[in-house]
Design brief:
This protein is α+β, with helices and mostly antiparallel strands and about 150 residues long. Helix content is about 30%, strand content about 15%.
């Protein structure tokens, strides 16, 4: 009987090595890029993209010149447009690099409120309808956007 496979994250940890701010892949290289069987680039595992085939990753050339680097912060995530089934929404994906204390809904509310403040559609006094931590985040983003 074959032994059970190790979790992918554990295999990546075993096959990679930290060098400064880079996570260097020591495993298989295919077409000059890090490769893990049935996954592709191992950085997809680190970015939680295995269940999201409509998202692709590209290495940020300005951040890293090492073709073996799989550090998640050195990649851009690109959502592909669906041509065959335009009516289907993309699968929801949350970026693990941006650790946030807010839920997706709260982040949408914050972004919408900042845009409305910026367009002068919402007076600052009306922000009292939000919870205090959300109001503080709205004001922080609005002030950083306007340089205040």
């Amino acid at each position: 009987m074959a032994r059970p496979r190790k979790p992918l994250a554990e295999r990546i940890g075993r096959l990679s090595q930290r060098e400064g701010d880079h996570l260097v892949w020591q495993g298989q290289i295919k077409d000059g890029k890090p490769y893990l069987d049935r996954v592709g680039n191992p950085a997809r595992i680190l970015l939680n993209l295995t269940e999201h085939p409509d998202y692709q990753i590209r290495r940020d050339e300005g951040l890293c010149d090492d073709h073996r680097c799989i550090e998640p912060h050195h990649y851009r995530v690109i959502r592909e447009r669906k041509f065959k089934y335009d009516d289907q929404a993309s699968t929801p994906w949350r970026d693990p690099r941006n650790v946030s204390a807010f839920t997706d809904r709260e982040l949408e509310d914050i972004q919408e409120a900042v845009e409305m403040l910026n367009n002068k559609e919402l007076p600052i006094e009306d922000l009292d309808q939000f919870q205090p931590h959300i109001k503080a985040e709205i004001l922080t983003r609005f002030s950083s956007l306007n340089g205040r």
